Amino acid sequence: MATGKIIKALSGFYYVFHEGAVYQCRGRGLFRKKKITPLVGDLVEFQAETMKEGYILSIQDRKNEFVRPPIANVDQALIVTSATNPDFNPLLLDRFLVLIEAKRLEPVIVISKMDHIDKSVAVKMEDYRKIYEEIGYEVILASVYEKNTLDQIKSQLANRTTVIAGQSGVGKSSLLNSIDPRLNIDTDEISKSLGRGKHTTRHVELYEMAGGLVADTPGFSSLEFGDLQLEELSECFPEFVQVQDQCKFRGCLHFKEPKCAVKQGVDNETISKLRYEHYMHFVQEIQNRKPRY
Q1: What is the pTM of this model?
Q2: Which residues belong to any copy of the CP-type G domain (predicted)?
Q3: Residue 79: predicted pLDDT
Q4: Is 172 known as a binding-site position?
Q5: Direct distance between the N- and C-terminal alpha carbons of the chain, in angstroms, rounded to an integer
């Protein structure tokens, strides 16, 4: 018996990486009876007579798991957004950040296409970088993926399992190809990696890259908050968490309550007004969400 990590799941087979080799395995029949589905990213105990004939015997406890994409034990999300074409969208970035924070992942923000913008837009991007770095996020401003930028991103990938998140056309495929040309992802097939349109292939695969493992999916095919509760939303804003113990009321939601430390932070400009406006936008969205039965 050996321990390995599932790096691909396809057509009932699980491909388990162990000591530099990949073993094709099936799950035990017991998994089906107990309705347990092994996921890419799972650490498993397996037994294999040959490279093509193995069985997964047990799955170790997961630290997290996702439905879309179906993957477990992720350490961080690399959010790729662009300065232009499509234009930088801070509301969309904050939406990604909330989803990632809700899963207790470490986010890294990459703003691409910095070489395609004029000075006035570049100044705005620097302002945004300051906002997010003050919260504590790692922010990388990327022109064409030159060596310094790639080295910075590679250092973030080392020894971690990473999912890539970001809207269509921001340069996710170009980034992955620049880090590891062996991938040769078609940059025109954005819809394929999103699992949309005419391409129906939908499987997650982990690739060895820069000393870590990277999922070949952009990470989140749904940007709805789903089951996120209103009371949980402020926990996804680290700068709110830092001060919310100073709010007058325990369980303060930071929008109607008096003597709210978060609102005071916005007034004092120690908390970004833009981020607070986005928080309020998400509050409304969750309040207006139709109940599920």
Answers
A1: 0.86
A2: 63-223
A3: 93
A4: yes
A5: 44
